[in-house]
Amino acid sequence: MIKRLLLIACLGLLSQGFTAQEQDSVAELLVPGEEYLLGLFPKQAPPALRQVDVSGFYRFFGTYTQMDTDYPLEETGAFTTAERSLFIADDTQLPNLWMNIAGRPNAKTSFSMDLFMFQFMDGNLGETYGSQVVDSLRPNVYSPITGTRLGGSLGLNLGINLYGSYATDIGSFSARMGGTHWYRLSDLTFSSFRGYNRFTLFERNPWDPVQRQVTDRYSTFYEQGAIQQDLRWGNRAFHGLIVEGAQLPEDFSFSLLFGKTELNGGFDSKPNSSVGGRVRKDFSSGFLSFNTFNSHTYVDSLARASIGFNVHTLEADQRMGDFRIHAEIGAGRYYSPNYASTWAEAINIKASVEKEKIGIPIELHYFRIAPEVINNNAIFWNTSIDEMVFNDIPLGQPGSNQVLVPFASSVTPIGLMTNNRTGLNINTEIEIDDLSVAIGYGVASEITPISNQISYSHAVNQLTRSRFWRWDFVSNVGPYGRYNVVYRDAYELIQLTDDEFGTVVNEKHFNTAEVQAKYSKRVLGKQLFAFLLGRYNTVQPEFNAIMPLNDEAYLRLYSTELEVYWELIPSLIWANYVGYERAIANYDTDINDETRRPRNQEGYGLGTGIDLSLGKNALFSVRHRFFEFEDKSFPLDQFRGQETLLEIKAFF
Q1: Cβ-Cβ contacts under 8 Å for 472 (sequence gap 6 or more)
Q2: Among 168, 282, 416, 531, which residue's beta carbon has the most beta carbons within 10 A?
Q3: pLDDT tens string 593-602
């Protein structure tokens, strides 16, 4: 007791001995962010510096498919779908275990990297999916360091990312280096399609998060028209250096990109790179920016010939009360040894008015992308120029450039553009009590008749169909060799026959209508959500402001999908799905040699399942689907079966 009293007295005398000047000098010795354990200074935990965080997820994904018919996977019919198949994990290089390791050595520097692990499977999967280790050579539990190690299935996913920032009197500067960063500049330079969130939720995506409440996924989609997405949503992958400057004088900012994208990176040893950036000026009611993106790849080892593209745009965003206009206008070109480079226009303008002004919100979207403009990193597809391929690696294998082949004249959703096309879209939304209806309608026309093909996808059973072909993104497959497999989709090609000795003479015109209805109500005291999505498209040789519903159209493509989710208990959702699609072509398209008729297709989907919450960071999901498809004019193109999907996903 006496010792404590003496200590308090000494500290009191010391504190009185400090003058104001001396107290200031002591304050100057303090280092912000440091923890001091002596004296009268407060004892508090330091900020989140000099630490390493590990996060990620484990995802078990299994698919069981039972086919009632043998569906030919290629034209000869030598390979068909298996009667029964059980597939564990995902075949698109998406891992079972994903760990993100992030560190912060100081307040201005941080790094992160992703580690992934694949399922160990039998089969000749090739180098794309890691080295294979036979059972007899694997380490055993009694001697884990002997034998052939399994490190071939554990690797770095997107490299090691390094971030740095530095604040000065004239602004804040930051840099991102190495690894792969997800970034966007503008719609016409460097970005990914976001659309109007018109999609279905029945089958979960590999990147879907696990939310705190099992109903959050569906209530958020109903209330906000969107669901939570990770940082890849709407962004593009970029490998290299990104430098940014913000809070500069006069409200200026800038960004500079130098490196590679997924389309010009590859495994080719010849030099190739992408360069882009923007300079932006902010105002109280909008901004003005200059954007650019450029790709350059040498074709030969002597660096005498090259291919690439350039796009430069001016972008402006302006709000005027309840009105807003967003415009991006610029020019672009494509160059290669066998193509004459020409600069041409690229225009993308959106004008909108808030519902407070006229009762409902309305957005008008006008675009015009000349056929000479190519940018595989923007939100418009190439449908006009057959790009030069500078290696012979087949489609679906690492380093392949076959993905650059044009999509023909594509049927696209509202908001997704293609070059060699100009169009006008209108979007609005109507709310009546618990019902919300979003409506979109668009018309578009080709600028120049180039392609004599039309490509389209099947909305109903789209993912089921894409899983018929595993491991590779193959082309010209199916019973009649007219399907092309891409990531989570398989699109179909139609050959037009109204040309003149092989020369295309008719421009194609497109009509698109989309309807999305969302409804929520409590049934028996439990929340129920219903979502309806209808997509209706036509392609015809003449322009029509109103969608033609007769044989005038080369192709009529209709699909309607209905989903119902009912909360049985707070941790359990009952999910249900029904879908129907129809595709009808006219006699100016390819016909079957036996039936002498063009395409006449029908597809059905009927599914049910559950979402069961296993805690705030874990979810158990089951989906079972009955599916059927038939082309009445092409008898080999038909299949029927059922599929069960099971997913267990836990975040940590």
Answers
A1: 394, 395, 396, 397, 485
A2: 531
A3: 999 999 999 9
